[in-house]
Amino acid sequence: MSDAPARRLRQLGDVPVSQLRHVGEKRLAALASLGIDNVFDLLTVYPRRYLDRTKRVDLSDLNVGDEAAVYGEVEKVSSRRTRQGRVMVEVTVSGDGESLKVVFFNQAWRERQLTLGVQALFFGKVSDYKGQRQMTNPVVDVIVGASGEERDASKVGRVVAIYPASGKAGLTSWEMGGFIEESLRRAGPLFDPLSSLERDALDLVDRTQAYWGIHLPSDLDDPPRARRRLAFDEFLRLQLLLALRRQRLEASSAGIRHPFNVNDLDAAPGELVAPTSSLVRRFLAGHRYALTGAQRRVLEEIARDMSSSLPMHRLLQGDVGSGKTMVALAAMLASLDGGRQSVLMAPTEVLAEQHLASLRRDLEGLTVTDDAVLDGSRPLSVQLLTGRVRAREHLGVLEGLVSGSIDVVVGTHALLNDEVRFKSLGLIVIDEQHRFGVEQRAALRDQGRTRSNEGADPDLLVMTATPIPRTAAMVIFGDLDVSVVDEMPEGRRPIVTTWAKSEEEVNDCWRRVREEVAAKRRAYVICPLVEDSERVEATSAVEERTRLALHELRGLSVGLLHGQMKSAEKEEVMKQFRAGDLDVLVATVVIEVGVDVPEASVVVIEDAWRFGLAQLHQLRGRVGRSEQQSYCYLLGTPPSEEGEKRLAALVASNDGFELAEIDLEMRGEGTLLGARQKGRSDLKLAKLKSDEDLLLSAQRLAVAIVQDNDGTLVDMVDELRLFVDDDEATYLFKS
Ligand code: ADP
Ligand code: MG
């Protein structure tokens, strides 16, 4: 075996688990139900914790109040009903000649799980019940099942890996460990794509050591070192995919050189400009306010991209209210300066309508040259394309885009329909998105080219809805360049956020709403989130509006906005609220992203704990959009510590980037990356926050590997095939 060539991960992926000694039909099915088909899958099931057999807690040392992990064998099980009618399962666990009572409430199935002879780890707090030590509802890891298992206990080291409980599949940690151990032993040495030089430079152990160290550690120092290497590999593969994607894009792309002159960004409001000046200059000179320093810096980055022959592929990050729209607008004008059209895509109709209105207002008076009209110039034309635009208008917009009489089109996903064609598309802006994956972006760009007579790739600017931590951006948007608007427009005051707990504080909240309305300002009341049911959510919003109009907010004009209303109704309500005909808008989360009514100065969020942190920050960001002092009130009592933490974080900070870090820490990477990443490319061990150094070095190495294009790339591509589907592999790996 020692002469055999070191084994590659992909080869492990080719070995079905059925080849393992003790895997029969039943276990095969159990493993399959956990998504484990081959030996590689098995090796990436990582232990949840370790049991140091030399340091087992002696039951006799266990004190009341201790948090402890106790290993023992089930000696007695029984169950009965308590007087309150709850099922109580009582288990007596013994070890080292001592015993401990463990009780479970409302977990009747424990009686079937913890049968006589089962050995398990019990994690929990030791309490005192009538003078006896006892654990109530502890976390349980079954190590050895009652049926007796084949794993040879004598071969197990002094540290035992505990695998995630898989009670449903009926596999014990012990069995899982047995399969993994057999796999590792039979696999022999593993091939390492990194040279020892590279490993030393990065302080990483080799791959064989890593897989052994995590699954079969000889002491507790092994797992952290092993984890570091395996996490690095996860990052490296991900960054390689992104780097390859980027390289492909660049190789296959033909960009547009837009005439975007950085000097035009110097134009200040009120400045005199010649009618022949660029649209960018004319716009800035005629606008209500000047660019902030951050907007200007970011626009310089964009100008550089847009005037280069490589297509722009840029992410624009900025906190809620930092003024991303104006940046997009200037970029769209630069595209128009070269005679090309732009697309602005928003996630909702409400937002698309708002963009249409504000673009029309901001661009009023600007003219473009057009040989198709008599005197060679006409007003700039901005049109809307959403699912609800009426057939005849719809047709008109489609025609205008093909003929070139429309300069900017604003819309929703309807813009992605096949029928939409352009005379000459120069720029695509996607607003308020962070759920737009790599694949969708690539598709959009391809469409941009094929649907426009330009025959070149339009530039792409993606704007995030909420800031995301830098590390997360590297993972989700690693194929994009990133610009950050890190400054708010001048004169903004931090929003005062209050978590109204007492009745008195809640009264203060409604009093504040009345005061602000009396001072000619406006308020939002956000209704509770109802998971998965827009209909129930809408009903409760209707009721809440009626209740408020009759009680707390009697005498004010209170409007309503929810997801079940027709588009035209929504639009009408927004118009009234904008105009000040409505004082208060009771709304569901349809209001969440992007809505901009600067006169709104209070937002009340009911049952605030139901919302995620990023969402809360977004909702709060509906106010604080002018120099007026604004207020945010959080109502409702969180039923969990999680919820309390979120609300406390929101009260403590107005900074979206800081909140994004906290959010990441609280929720873990799973939710963040969630739907975006398919297949096996999930990060299982790597942690975005604590492994930032690994991520950075993985990114550097990935770029170098793609550039060098030598044997290492070949080795890594072989490995990457484990993680991508066939289509993507064909696209990424064709030579
Ligand atoms: P977001 O980044 O959240 O999309 P918006 O683009 O909606 O923010 O801008 C928020 C508000 O700030 C808008 O009312 C906008 O008119 C205003 N604004 C944008 N840029 C500036 C600026 N440079 N100076 C003053 N106000 C600005
Ligand atoms: Mg916005």
Quick summary:
The chain is built from 24 helices and 23 strands. The protein has 735 residues and is an alpha/beta fold.
Write a structural description.
The structure is a single chain. With 735 residues, the chain is α/β, with parallel strands linked by helices. It folds into 5 domains: 1-48 and 163-191, Orthogonal Bundle (DNA polymerase, domain 1), CATH 1.10.150; 50-161, Nucleic acid-binding proteins (OB fold (Dihydrolipoamide Acetyltransferase, E2P)); 195-252 and 696-735, no CATH class; 262-485, P-loop containing nucleotide triphosphate hydrolases (Rossmann fold), CATH 3.40.50; 496-653, P-loop containing nucleotide triphosphate hydrolases (Rossmann fold, 3-Layer(aba) Sandwich). Helix content is 39%, strand content 18%. A 7-stranded parallel β-sheet has the order 13-14-10-15-16-9-17, with helices on both faces. A 6-stranded parallel β-sheet has the order 18-23-22-19-21-20, with helices on both faces. Strand 5 (119-129) and strand 6 form a beta hairpin. Helix 8 packs across helix 22, helix 10 (293-307) runs parallel beside helix 11 (324-337) and helix 20 (641-652) packs antiparallel against helix 21 (656-673). The longest helix has 31 residues, at 222-252. Magnesium ion (MG) is lined by residues 324-325, 431-432, 594.
